[in-house]
């Protein structure tokens, strides 16, 4: 059952760069889930990068410019939903820190942060979605991304939604909350450490016996998928939105 009186509430889907360029199916799946929850979905055409790469790289001026542009693009919506913990954390946690407290831009950033949510948080905690769909995906294991878990506290929400689906069983990793080695620019600055972390994550995944690895951030997905592929594994890697919407590409 969805949030009381969703009629007329506008939700902006912020697709993110990696979804747009690498996994557009994730965006379509997220859109279906939001619409099925009863909200008026819109995908602002002017959206672009949230500014996270610049922020992480220390280019504050570029991060501020991206934030101001994004705040304008996302104005007027009741909610902003992202299929990414890292990008959601950038907007909801870091945008307010880019501006001086008491300034008009700081107030606008705080207002946007308050109505910005990662997809599974929005579905489970705001829309209070109760999925009754089924899937043939079978045994899965879930990877907690660093940004989603540590910055936004996302842990129970995706598991609650997934476990409610008929045909889905969750087999937890020994260390589901350890970094996969992606970390945005981290994998570029420290490739040897990144590769070793990815090896440990891949081993943990294989040991669960699950046929599919599910995650909430495309960056983590691509990093893990690449390592599994190079190791010759046939384990599939899917975004949580694809599973929840039953939009899995084989």
Number of helices: 13
- Taking the alpha carbons of the first and last residues, their distance comes to 30 Å
Number of strands: 8
Q: Specify the overall morphology.
A: globular
| Strand-residue proportion | 5-15%
Biggest sheet record? 4 strands, parallel
Helix percentage range: 40-55%
Which stretches are poorly predicted, pLDDT < 50 over at least 5 residues? Answer: none
Give Rg in angstroms.
Answer: 18 Å
Strand order of the largest sheet: 2-1-3-4
Mean pLDDT score: 93
Order of helices and strands: EHHEHHEHHEHEHHEHHEHEH
Structural class: alpha/beta
Provide an overview of this structure.
The model has no long low-confidence stretch (mean pLDDT 93). With 250 residues, this protein is an alpha/beta fold. It is 48% helix and 15% strand. The chain has helices spanning 17-21, 24-36, 52-56, 60-73, 85-94, 104-114, 119-126, 146-152, 156-163, 186-189, 191-208, 218-230, 240-244, and strands at residues 10-13, 40-42, 79-82, 116-118, 134-143, 166-170, 212-215, 236-239. Strands 2-1-3-4 form a four-stranded parallel beta sheet, sandwiched between helices. Strands 6-5-7-8 form a four-stranded parallel beta sheet, with helices on both faces. The protein has 13 helices and eight strands. The two termini are 30 Å apart. The chain has two domains: 10-125, no CATH class; 132-244, Rossmann fold, CATH 3.40.50.10700.
């Amino acid at each position: 059952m969805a949030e009381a009186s969703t009629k007329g509430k506008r939700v902006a889907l912020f697709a993110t760069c990696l979804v747009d360029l690498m996994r557009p199916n994730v965006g379509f799946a997220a859109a279906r889930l939001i619409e099925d929850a009863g909200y008026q979905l819109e995908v602002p055409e002017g959206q672009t990068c949230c500014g996270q790469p610049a922020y992480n790289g220390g280019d504050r001026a570029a991060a501020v410019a991206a934030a101001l542009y994004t705040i304008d693009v996302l104005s007027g919506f009741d909610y902003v939903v992202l299929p990414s913990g890292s990008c959601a954390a950038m907007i909801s946690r870091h945008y307010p820190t880019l501006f001086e407290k008491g300034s008009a831009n700081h107030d606008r950033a705080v207002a946007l942060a308050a109505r910005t949510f990662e997809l599974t948080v929005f579905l489970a905690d705001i829309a209070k979605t109760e999925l009754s769909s089924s899937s043939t995906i079978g045994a899965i294991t879930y990877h907690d991304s660093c940004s989603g878990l540590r910055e936004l506290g996302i842990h129970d929400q995706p598991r609650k939604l997934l476990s409610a689906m008929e045909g889905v069983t969750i087999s937890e990793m020994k260390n589901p909350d350890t970094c996969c080695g992606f970390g945005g620019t981290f994998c570029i600055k420290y490739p040897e450490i990144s590769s070793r972390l990815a090896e440990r994550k891949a081993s943990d995944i294989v040991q669960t016996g699950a046929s599919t690895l599910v995650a909430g951030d495309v960056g983590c997905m691509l990093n893990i998928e690449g390592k599994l592929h190079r190791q010759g594994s046939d384990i599939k890697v899917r975004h949580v939105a694809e599973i929840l919407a039953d939009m899995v590409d084989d």
